[in-house]
Design goal:
- The chain is an alpha+beta fold.
- It is built from 46 helices and 19 strands.
- The strands form 5 sheets. A 5-stranded antiparallel beta sheet has the order 1-2-3-4-5, covered by helices on one side.
- Strand 7 and strand 8 form a beta hairpin.
- The longest helix is centred in the middle third of the chain and has 31 residues.
- It comes from Coffea arabica.
- This is Clustered mitochondria protein-like isoform X2.
- Keywords: Cytoplasm, TPR repeat.
Length: 1222
């Protein structure tokens, strides 16, 4: 944890900083796991025990005297007391045995508070309690704030702490209520949520109060849903329909409705492998064939019907069972019914609910919702719809269908509300047929359900397709493969920009503009059939055309045009669309073009951004976030992997993510059928199969095992729950399942992973995938996705069975939710980014501060968005020269990221890296290096040692060592960074030039101008090939080459005036090399370094920040672009004279190394070398140090003779200001 700047800002920099042990060279990451946790602080114990006395409850005659409670206390001195709590005071009574004596003791210990009484009876309590208060007071205020939904930790303490007796803990466990209130009425989650949405929000303060209430209620609901789901999955809560099969059970607990979803992807894999086995004649018995065919036709009891939800209650009570699947129902309809229960539908429903909540249409309501994955099961939790479980509500369904379009209900009042939301969500009003041939006009998916609750509110449920279906995935089993809302927004803006461009080139009058609009409307033909008012449409078109003619593509005009692009959510589905064939074809073409835009434009652009490091994910989670932010679904991960095959770190990242996602489904399937007492062993065995080499004898194919198990379940689920039957028949069935899984070996597991990857991601895992997988990042990612906690010890991951059952410490629920945040604060942050990019530091600081204040009032300090505000505030203060203020804000971000994202999250690692640069700016180099060490550890855990961010951090570390004069250590890190970038990014990448430039600068600081010229020549050659000779960065590199060459000639000329190399100087050089053997390795590495380093455009910006002191270290995705913008800000601020910072410590070059280099350069005597060294040092120290590392670089414009050229920190910075997200 970063220290407070107040205590360190005035400390002088130590001239000698000891090298941190194996800093950054963490090839054996497993051995570094124990370093993740800091040593636990000494526990301060105040009392031995304090529990409710067995005298409770007070007898009636004592209650009349005011007695409320009795407590038994054992102090640290070993004394035992019985304390009485009354309506006025606490006092020690005279009870000593098994009989209550309520009289006060003779010493008359009493106080108005319990703490005050304990301080009187125990001096050790008083001392320890004071220490606790002092520790709390000395900590950062944010460290005392509780996080509402803390992240799951995949690592647990090792050795395992002793489990001590704690009566209070035991009492809490006995009162376990799975989230419900023990005292008073249970909370009505739905009423609380909807009442908060009805709060007034016309003024900023009203909006803050409304957002805070919504955030608090939703957070409490998610917390209660997690506890309730654990109780449901643990079978501690009874279902409301116990006679149905267990997979159809529904639960109501704590006014929350729970239902199960199934893993349809795994079922699809089982069906595919069973059919493949039949095709290749590997099915040996006709009974197995019959079972497989029945399973294929019926989709198993898990998927045979929709997942039970609250609309099922409506369905059974109102429509008398119309959801029963009969033989005359089309197969597509049966398939759609089966897919309602899938993981994908639950995910889509959550995203749809969140979209409608953000649309915030008055009078249209949604239920609170959360998805909980625990022990292999997925539970969907929803607030209870008022009146849905009581009585006959035959008139409550007013909109949509409960039977997949057989009967559609419609209401004008409901339709008006849904239409308003549809306009905000870019959904088109369209017409559909029901089974009877009636036509209905809808503005939402057919299967959505508009219900009026008993509270007379209009609720919209089952929002599983609020965006159109992906036209690239239209086969069976892909009904819920829908486009992401980010893609819809991007596509609409792209179409609007293209249309604006075409309109500008046409005639400037209105009629000409209209003709151009019609002529260029091919990308979105459905605009012509948009079912909105003709008058309003014409007015809006005329307005848009005038704006185009007057402003030539203004942003507001583009946004207005994009609003006209609406999508029909029911195209490419089994529903029968009404309307003219031209309109339907136009709607389909509209969706098809959006899908092609995803496949042909966004996907290649994203792959290009990955290769240029514009987007640089560190692990699977950040890769998923980057995909979603760009509008790309995870199902395209295989195509991303194919596009990045030539980039080793991206190829490994995509490969690991596909392996983890495939293994996750198989592990969850194993957990679902594992008894409680075998969970640890089953998880350990799975990990051994995945990472070790388990080869059991007599192993049957895992697919056949799963098929037989599922078929056995399918034959019995119609009458009773399969798990309850297995229990009631005999205990041996569970042991049989367990033993069958233990027979599972490594080859079977990896075969299933390969098949799943091929089925789900259309990706063929390479033959060496088992060897290429980075084991620590894969373990970390898999544990995060399943909720497993393993012991933090050193594992022999190359062994046969590296894991034991005792290594599995916990299994935690994994949650997906839609907790709202303040939209007003988001807008302020986006506006602040614009101001920051334009160099308006004061305005940006005001906006970020206001957003920070709003978020603190809405969410409290422990929230990811608050951390983002702190990061931007730190960036603004850094570029304004206020290092102490930047450290304070960065410290806040670091604490929040550790508490809300996790100790080893990539954002936490980048927080440590930024903190290190800020400390370095205050000349606190030792603290900076320790923070860099922590950042390297976290980066190695999340991505492994081979990642461009690790190389970037190496360069930052090298610049810090260079500033304190430890040039041999700096060279070691620079060479290591160059090797990594060469291996990861190739020999002709722009970032290679940055690495060579960093080495050239380092050698220049040491006076090795020959080596500087050689490395800068390599920089120049790469830039010429990649950017051309006319690019400003190439010209900057050429100027550096001239400067280095000029300095080399000047030095040679000075030495040739009267001094030549003699035997003494040669002997001196030999003595230096003997005394410093590490110099030999450094020069050998420099001589061999003829390859090229590699790095990316985005990394080049932050690496040059380290070299030239112009930017913060590179973060991921949007943050790296913000860092680029911040670099531009810094240059503008420097021009305005806003940058004020203390000068750094003079560079102290190593005398032996500098003497040797001077001897090599021009063959001078040691005495001349010393004098030349002093001259070089003076020249270097005449320039102010850089903030991020290379503190000795002159960034002034070179003159014709002796001035240093413009630094590549400015030149190599890509001129991509327009790309900064606004």
């Amino acid at each position: 944890m970063g220290q407070s700047p107040s205590g360190t800002s005035g400390d002088p920099v130590k001239s000698e900083v000891a090298d941190l042990d194996s800093l950054g060279f963490m090839e054996n990451v497993s051995a570094s796991l124990s370093n993740l946790f800091s040593p636990p602080s000494k526990e301060i114990q105040c009392v031995e025990s304090i529990v409710f006395s067995s005298f409770n409850p007070p007898p009636s005659y004592r209650r009349l005297s005011g007695d409320l409670i009795y407590l038994d206390v054992v102090t640290m001195e070993g004394n035992k007391f019985c304390i009485t709590g009354t309506t006025k005071i606490f006092y020690v009574n005279s009870s000593t045995g098994n009989i209550l004596d309520p009289r006060p003791t003779k010493s008359a210990f009493e106080a108005t508070t319990l703490v005050g009484l304990l301080q009187k009876i125990s001096s050790k309590f008083k001392k320890a309690f004071r220490e606790i208060l002092e520790r709390k007071a000395s900590a950062h205020p944010f460290e005392n704030v509780q996080s509402l939904l803390p992240p799951n930790s995949w690592l647990g303490l090792y050795p395992i702490p002793d489990h001590k007796r704690d009566a209070a803990r035991a009492e809490n466990a006995l009162t376990l209520s799975f989230g419900s209130e023990l005292i008073g009425m249970q909370r009505d989650w739905n009423e609380e949520l909807q009442s908060c949405r009805e709060f007034p929000h016309s003024t900023p303060q009203e909006r803050i109060l409304r957002d805070r209430a919504l955030y608090k209620v939703t957070s409490d609901f998610v917390d209660a849903a997690i506890n309730g789901a654990i109780g449901v999955i643990s079978r501690c809560i009874p279902p409301i329909n116990p006679t149905d099969p267990e997979c159809f059970h529904m639960y109501v607990h704590n006014n929350i409705f729970f239902s199960f979803a199934v893993d349809a992807d795994l079922e699809q894999l089982s069906r595919k492998q069973a059919s493949d086995a039949y095709a290749s004649n590997r099915i040996e018995s006709s009974g197995m064939l019959q079972s497989s065919s029945e399973k294929t036709a019926n989709h198993l009891p898990h998927g045979a019907q929709r997942v039970p939800d609250q609309s099922d209650s409506l369905n059974t009570e109102i429509l008398n069972g119309v959801t029963d699947l009969t033989s005359d129902v089309p197969s597509e309809t049966q398939l759609s019914e089966s897919e309602q229960a899938t993981y994908a539908s639950a995910n889509n429903d959550l995203k749809g609910t969140k979209a409608y909540q953000e649309a915030d249409v008055p009078g249209l309501y949604n239920l609170a919702m959360a998805i909980i994955d625990y022990r292999g099961h997925r539970v969907v939790a929803q607030s209870v719809l008022p009146g849905i479980l009581q009585g006959d509500k035959s008139d409550s369904l007013l909109y949509g269908s409960v039977d997949n379009g057989k009967k559609i209900c419609w209401s004008e009042d409901f339709h008006s509300k849904v239409s308003e939301a549809a306009n905000r969500l870019r959904l088109k009003e369209h017409r559909v047929f029901d089974k009877s041939g009636n036509v209905f006009k809808l503005a939402a998916p057919v299967e959505c359900k508009g219900i009026v609750g008993s509270d007379d509110r209009h609720y919209l449920l089952d929002l599983m397709r609020v965006t159109p279906r992906d036209a690239n995935y239209t086969g069976p089993g892909s009904r819920f493969c829908i486009l992401r809302p980010e893609l819809i927004t991007s596509f609409c803006h792209a179409e609007a920009a293209e249309r604006s461009k075409s309109q500008v080139t046409s005639e400037m009058d209105v009629s000409g503009g209209t003709d151009s609009l019609d002529a260029n409307a091919e990308p979105v033909p459905s605009i012509q059939e948009n079912p909105v008012s003709a008058g309003s449409e014409m007015q809006s078109k005329e307005k848009v055309e005038k704006e185009v003619a007057e402003e030539y593509g203004c942003q507001s005009e583009s946004r207005h045009i994009s609003e006209e692009i609406l999508f029909n959510p029911n195209v490419f589905t089994e529903f029968n669309l009404a309307g003219s064939p031209e309109e339907i074809a136009a709607d389909e073409e509209n969706v098809r073009k959006a899908s092609l835009y995803l496949k042909d434009v966004l996907l290649p652009k994203f792959i290009q951004d990955l290769c240029t490091l514009e987007v640089s994910p560190m692990d699977g989670h950040t890769l998923t976030e980057a995909l979603h932010a760009n509008g790309i679904n995870v199902r395209y991960l295989g195509k991303v992997a194919e596009g990045t095959r030539h980039m080793p770190h991206l190829w490994d990242l995509c490969l690991n993510e596909i392996v983890v996602r495939s293994a996750k489904h198989i592990l969850k399937d194993a957990l679902r059928d594992t008894e409680d007492h075998d969970l640890g062993g089953a998880i350990a065995h799975f990990f051994n199969c995945l990472f070790g080499n388990i080869a059991n004898k007599g192993v049957v194919n895992s697919t056949n095992l799963r098929s037989q198990k599922k078929d056995h379940v399918g034959h019995q689920a119609s009458s009773k729950s399969f798990k309850s039957q297995a229990k009631s028949k005999n205990r041996g069935s569970a042991r049989k399942k367990q033993s069958s899984f233990l027979n599972f070996n490594s080859d079977c597991l990896w075969f299933d992973i390969q098949e799943f990857a091929k089925l789900k991601y259309q990706f063929e895992l390479p033959e060496d995938a088992r060897l290429r997988a980075r084991k620590i990042p894969v373990i970390r990612n898999l544990c995060h996705k399943v909720g497993v906690t393993v012991a933090t010890r050193r594992y022999d991951l190359d062994g046969v069975a590296p894991f034991q059952a005792s290594d599995i410490l916990n299994l935690q629920p994994v949650v997906k939710h839609a907790i709202p945040v303040s939209s007003e604060a988001k807008d302020l942050v986006e506006t602040g980014k614009v101001q920051l990019a334009e160099g308006m530091l004061s305005e940006a600081y005001t906006l970020f501060s206001e957003a920070f204040t709003i978020l603190q009032q809405v969410t409290g300090p422990m929230h990811r968005e608050v951390a983002n505000c702190c990061r931007y505030l730190a960036m603004v203060l850094y570029h304004a020269g206020d290092m102490a203020g930047a450290i304070m804000q960065q410290h806040k971000e670091l604490i929040i990221n550790e508490r809300c994202l996790g100790l080893d999250h990539p954002d936490t690692a980048h927080s440590y890296g930024n903190m290190a640069l800020f400390y370095h700016g205050l000349n606190q180099t030792e603290l900076a290096l320790r923070h860099m060490s922590r950042a390297l550890l976290l980066l190695s855990l999340s991505s492994g040692p081979d990642h461009p961010d690790v190389a970037a951090t190496f360069i930052n570390v090298a610049m810090m060592y260079q500033d304190i004069g430890k040039m041999n250590t700096a060279l070691r890190y620079l060479q290591e960074a160059l090797k990594k970038n060469e291996r990861l990014l190739g020999e002709e990448h722009i970032q290679t030039a940055v690495c060579y430039h960093a080495l050239a600068i380092a050698f220049n600081c040491m006076g090795a101008f020959k080596l500087s010229h050689q490395h800068e020549k390599k920089t120049y050659d790469i830039l010429v090939k990649q950017l051309g000779e006319e690019d400003s960065r190439t010209r900057d590199s050429q100027n550096w080459m001239k400067t280095f060459k000029m300095r080399e000639l000047q030095m040679n000329a000075q030495k040739q005036k009267g001094q030549a190399l003699n035997s003494a100087s040669a002997q001196k050089a030999i003595d230096i090399l003997k005394a410093h053997p590490d110099l030999i390795h450094a020069f050998q590495a420099a001589a061999v370094g003829g390859g090229s380093g590699s790095s990316s455009a985005a990394t080049s910006k932050s690496l040059n920040a380290a070299i030239m002191g112009e930017a913060l270290p590179r973060a991921r995705g949007v943050d790296e672009r913000a860092a680029r913008a911040a670099a531009e800000v810094r240059k503008k601020a420097a021009a305005r004279g806003l940058l004020i910072r203390p000068h750094g410590v003079p560079v102290q070059a190593l005398p032996p190394l500098t003497q040797l280099l001077n001897i090599i350069n021009s063959g001078v005597t040691p005495e001349a070398a010393i004098s030349e060294e002093n001259g070089v040092k003076k020249e270097v120290n005449d320039h102010p140090p850089s903030e991020a590392g290379g503190g000795s670089i002159d960034e002034s414009k070179p003159g014709p003779q002796d001035q240093t050229p413009v630094g590549l920190g400015t030149g190599l910075k890509q001129k991509a200001k327009a790309k900064v997200p606004l």
